[in-house]
Each structure stands twice: as structure tokens, then as C-alpha cells.
Amino acid sequence: MTRRIMLVTHPTRPDAPDLAGTFAERLEAHGIEVELVPEGEPTHEVLSAGRVVTHNKSPVPPHVDATGCELVVVFGGDGTILRGAEIARPAGAPLLGVNLGRVGFLAEAERDDVDAVVGRIVTRDYHLERRMTLEVDVVHEGRVISSNWALNEASVEKSARERMLEVAVEVDGRPLSTWGCDGVVVSTPTGSTAYAFSGGGPVVWPDVEAILLVPISAHALFARPLVLGPDTRLAVEVVPHSYVDGVMWCDGRRTVELPAGARIEVRRSETPVLLVRLTEAPFTDRLVAKFGLPVTGWRGPVGGGRALADLGTDTVAHRDSDRSGEHVEGRA
Predict the structure, then answer these.
(1) pLDDT computed for residue 241 by the predictor
(2) pTM score of the predicted model
(3) Phi-psi region at 142: left, alpha or beta (left = phi > 0; alpha = psi -120 to 50)
(4) pLDDT at 287 over 80
(5) Which of 143, 150, 241, 321 lies deepest, with the highest CB count within 10 Å?
């Protein structure tokens, strides 16, 4: 059976076409088919008598289907990887990111790792990591007007700068608080290093099952970030007397405008995103490398631990020698 890889690239980075082309040629030399996903046209959908509008910037074209693909490989930053997740998740295909951006928390490799990545794919020398996602419904006037999902976060934000957004927050069917704020972020552990982190939320290790609630610039005494159980059901309502409408974003890509009285219901999804991992390096090393954290003076446990010089060199080539534990192959 022919192996097939779906390839997603950043649309405007000048180095993306050459890197992706080289990557495709090397895979095809090993008999692996590569399909390039084209850019989609931005979509606009008017709902609820013109009061609620959905947008999707750089959407996935409707004919794209990753069913049967061994992997979805992305060349770009975290935003492009999130676009790749829209393709990979419904098909249950693993997602592998090659970082061409600045931070690339979701990426597993850097641009200089292309040769090593090709070798790993050819030999199926990788393992998979399940990442929790969120189901997000928008309810208005008693009916669901939008159903969406998020890998990083669902954020409710004000649509106008001059006023605060009035929201009421509910946890498991009970009222928690009402805030005048710039917005509220409901995040997964994966998204704890994204928008929720910028809003003052905690970094949550990806193997922790939890939902984060992070108020943004709330004018209230009790407005601290909260870490809730994975089965918590959250709701954020734009209160009817709010003087400004809101807007909801899922992963910063898909948005729905929220009139006063709209209700956003968030819960854990049963459909995860599968991320490809090429190393057993712990999440701590990723934090140190991506944020450039100072670790000078660390000596580690007596008689063991990684050398200090290894921290921050978070590439496949450097990490190959650090693999440990039982190896789990990628799926055929």
C-alpha cells in the first residue's frame, strides 16, 4: 500500500516553498506520496438575521481530506500548525510541525532538521502524543448558532476598545462571577503557553488534564486564573445589558461575533489532536529552549542529568542521542 503524506506550508514565508519542495522530493524518492494543501479563500457566514458573523482566515479548502494519510506535516509557525490541526484532527492523522516561526511551541523540529525528519518518517521512527481539545458552542436566543473546537483556546473578547465587555461566568451549572473585562480565555494545557500565558495564566504541562480559565484585564477583586478539572463544563455569557458586543476566537483562526445575551459553552472534546514526537525529551527542556530561560548554575542530580550545554539545543539531531525509555513506533 502506498504511503501518503499531506503537506501544509506557510503561504508567505519566502523559505517555505524551497524547504517544502526539498522535503517532498526526498520523501518521494522513498516511494512516499506527498500532497500539498492549497490556500483557501477567507469565509464569511452571516447568521441570526445578520447579527452574528463567522470568519475563518486562511481556511482549509472543503475538498481537503487527510483520511488515510500517515502524517500531516506543516512548515511554518504555530499559526500554520493550527491550520494543519484543522486538517489532521477530523481524519485522526498525526500532526508534525517543522518550525519556521519565532517560538514554535507546537513544532517538533526546526528548519535545519529536514534531513533527520525525512529519515524518521521513512523508518516510522516516531511516537505519538495525544493533546486535549475543546468543544465550543455558541448559543443565542435559545439555539446553537455555531459549533466549533479549539486545540489552544477559545477566547471571548470585546469588539470595541472604548468600553469593557460585561460577562457572566458559569462553572458546572453554577454562577462564578460577573466581570467587566477585555475578555476571557478558556484554554487547554497545550494553549497554556499561548494566549492564556500572555494573560497571566500558569504554564500547565501537556500531560495534565485540565481546563484553564483566564480573565483578561478584569475590573474585579476576584479575577485570578483558575485551573479546573478536565470534565468541567464552562459557560461565558455576554450579559444582556452589556454596552459592547463580543467576539469569540477559536485558536485565533475562527471567529464568531457575539451580540449581547450570547452564551459560549465549553467542554472537553472526545477528539484529540495527535502530535508527532521525535524525541523523549521532557517538556521542561522545551520550555527552556523556547523561552530562552536562564539555567546557569544548574548541576543536576549527582551522577546523572543532561549536560547544561545540551539545554536549549532542542533539535532532532542533538536529541537523537538523548532518547530513552521504551520506543513506540508511529502507526503504519
Answers:
(1) 83
(2) 0.86
(3) left
(4) yes
(5) 150
